[in-house]
Design brief:
Layout lengths: L10 H16 L9 E5 L6 E4 L15 E4 L14 H13 L5 E5 L2 H7 L11 H4 L5 E4 L8 H9 L8 E4 L3 E6 L2 H24 L8 H13 L3 H16 L6
Parallel strand pairs: 5-6
Antiparallel strand pairs: 1-2, 1-4, 2-3, 4-7, 6-7
Helix pairs in contact: 1-8, 2-5, 3-6, 6-8
């Protein structure tokens, strides 16, 4: 279903991002009115859409999203100013990492459990976790809430375009991608992979870890899988269109 609203820019992108917010609630990966998703809308990635301050993911509509300039030092003085930690983290990433077109940060349960372990790396123990082989980084130096200084530090960890996921030690997880579909697909798969790993640890039995060569082969196969992430988001939007199409208003 199409929901055209010509007087609002980037309408298709807004609808995709709003759908991701709504589905995150269905997956119970949200937290109060915290956590943020953003999507670049200009060529160099410095202008981006983001959820408004204090709005629950379950109520976010496409028209609610605010547009921010990562280089505008007066952003926090706007009447519709974003959450200051969202500005600190997402602003820094969009400023420093043009390849990070879409940025999604949550404190989902299993990813945060992983981030709370002394070793927060995700080993390739199954097909899903292999998606992130040599493609995730662990931030071992949590320095408090992600205001400007902390956000800038975190952004440096994403300089390598091969890195798609940051396990934020003592904090949560952050995933980047080229599109909403790609990023949201990674986010959901990382949470599922973290859950599998945590449950495997709970058995106390030895883990069946994939050889590096097979893990890398599988990661590349995920990257080349035709249309998978796009189909995932398309189906999410189809279900939302049936259940509650207000996301696209």
């Amino acid at each position: 279903m199409n929901h055209p609203l010509p007087n609002i820019a980037h309408w298709h992108e807004r609808c995709e991002l709003a759908a991701a917010f709504r589905w995150t609630v269905k997956l119970d990966m949200h937290e109060a009115v915290a956590n943020h998703f953003s999507l670049a809308v200009n060529a160099d990635g410095t202008r981006f859409l983001m959820n408004p301050n204090g709005r629950h993911f379950a109520r976010i509509r496409a028209s609610d999203l605010i547009e921010i300039d990562a280089n505008d030092a007066a952003t926090l003085a706007r009447p519709d100013a974003p959450d200051p930690t969202a500005w600190g983290l997402h602003g820094a990433i969009h400023r420093a990492c043009p390849h990070a077109r879409c940025v999604m940060h949550v404190h989902s349960i299993h990813a945060t459990v992983l981030a709370s372990l002394a070793d927060s790396r995700l080993p390739p123990i199954d097909q899903n976790s292999a998606m992130f082989f040599n493609r995730h980084v662990v931030d071992d130096h949590y320095g408090g809430m992600a205001f400007a200084e902390e956000g800038a530090r975190c952004a440096t960890l994403l300089a390598d375009p091969r890195i798609t996921t940051m396990v934020m030690g003592n904090h949560g997880v952050l995933v980047i991608g080229r599109t909403v579909a790609e990023t949201f697909n990674r986010l959901t798969y990382f949470e599922r992979a973290a859950e599998t790993y945590i449950r495997a640890l709970q058995t106390g039995r030895p883990l069946r870890v994939l050889p590096d060569a097979i893990a890398e082969k599988t990661a590349q196969e995920w990257e080349a899988y035709p249309g998978f992430a796009e189909a995932h988001l398309r189906e999410i939007r189809a279900m939302l269109d049936h259940e509650d199409p207000t996301y696209a208003t």
